[in-house]
Amino acid sequence: MTQPPMHTPPAPPWLQDEPEIRDLLDTLLARLDKKPLAVREKPPSVRLSAKNQPDLFRNDEASDRSWALLKSLTPDLLRVTDNPRRKPFDPVYAGATIQLSPGREAEAEKLLRGWLVHPYCAPYRSHWERAVTAGAALFPGSAAELVLAAPGLPGRSAQEVLDAFARIGDFADIGLTLRQLSAKCFWGHSKFLDSREDLLRTLFPGILIAPRPVLVQLYLSSVVSGVLFIENQDSYLAALAGSPEAVAGHALIYVSGFKGSAGRIRNKQAVSMHFHASSDLQQQEKFLGWWFSGEACEWPLWFWGDLDYSGMMILKALRGLFGEVGAWVAGYSPMLDLLSRSQGHAAETANKGAQGNPESTGCDYADKVLLPAIRSTGMFVDQEAVTN
User: Residue 254 — φ and ψ, nearest 5°?
Assistant: First the structure.
């Protein structure tokens, strides 16, 4: 059945005095800005919650009035759907869903935009494509990938971001690092270009980008019996203080996640070595000679990190760079004990669900003991759990 024309009255006088209702309606319109009705399978909706509508959830006389005013916008403008899982003593609006009135969505959107002075704002990508097309001559290389990337910064228009990319050309021959370029051109934001080096080389063929030196922090004892790569900062600092006791006599190297697997880590021009203040000076020359020679080490090499797939991936990468690096039994043994007593954590509880399984590392202890333990239990243990 065809819906009758919708009455379009002026904004109700109470709307200015109900900021939560205004914000709620504005949220619906903002979602339509991002994806218009014409390309949606169903209209956007907003669920009422104490977090987003705290005044409504006070359950007092004022909240009852606000609820009645919101309901007065049905059925012409809105549809309110009760939460079927609402608890018996919760207010009727707890978890209720608000959306534009079915069959009247376009009319309701037009009316609300007029009431809230919220004109349609085309998605950022549309503005970006027009800006790049008009400004393609700003770049000596191809701007095709820039169109597809559509990078944005909160509070900055598409044209402003495009102009910032164009400013990179002023520094293309200087040899700045990617972070320096980013900070100079993107309002002090040093990390904006971190994953966009290939894009810059497409826009500015021949651009000089200085590599950032890999910072390596380490400690050398007077007598070195082995080299121990340590994944996490707290465990590295504890090792400097002698915990666990088995670290005695080891050269200690702070790996800092995947930094130790950087392919440039044994290149003298690409590394900045920082020795702990109490390191033995007489050992430095010998140690550096081995590090930068790329040759096999006379000391046994060990890695100790989190008992998870990411830690095993670091071990595998270190073996590719330094040779026979083994999982450090003295560090992993107490972690295995925790795992056997169900003292580990599931991947999902620590945002580790996306970690890739390395299948094998090349280290017998890791491949025959550590990885099978992880797989059989489905749990991980962080390195910091070992404190003595």
Answer: -85, 115
Residue of 321, 283, 281, 286 lying closest to 301 (CA atoms): 321
**Quick one: CA dihedral 178, 182, 188, 192, positive or negative?**
negative
Start-to-end CA distance of the chain, whole Å, equals 76
Q: How far apart are CA 326 and CA 264, in angstroms?
A: 21
CA 153, 159, 164, 168 dihedral sign is positive
Q: CA 36, CA 28: separation in Å to the nearest integer?
A: 11
DSSP state of 369: I
Exposed, middle or buried by CB within 10 Å (0-12, 13-18, 19+), for 7?
exposed
**Average pLDDT rounded to a whole number, residues 212-219:** 85
**pLDDT tens digits along 235-267:** 999 999 999 999 999 999 998 755 656 677 888
Surface-to-core class of residue 11, CB atoms within 10 Å of its CB (0-12 exposed, 13-18 middle, 19+ buried): middle
Report which DSSP code applies to 82. -
- What is the spatial distance between Cα 335 and Cα 142, in angstroms, rounded to a whole number? 52
DSSP state of 6: P
pTM exceeding 0.85: no
The alpha carbon of 216 is separated from its chain's Cα centroid by a whole number of angstroms, namely: 24
Query: In 3D, which of 110, 98, 32 has the Cα closest to residue 71?
Result: 98
pLDDT digits (tens, 9 = 90+) for 123-176: 778 889 889 999 999 999 999 999 888 888 878 889 999 999 999 999 999 999
In this structure, which amino acid lies at residue 100? L
The topology (CATH level 3) of 214-385 is Dna Topoisomerase Vi A Subunit; Chain: A, domain 2 (3.40.1360)
User: For residue 5, what pLDDT is reported?
Assistant: 46
- Residue pair 47/97 in contact (Cβ under 8 Å)? The answer is yes
- Domain ranges within the chain, ordered by starting residue: 13-116, 124-210, 214-385
Cα angle for residues 97, 101, 107 (degrees, 5° grid): 140
Structural Rg of the chain based on CA atoms: 30
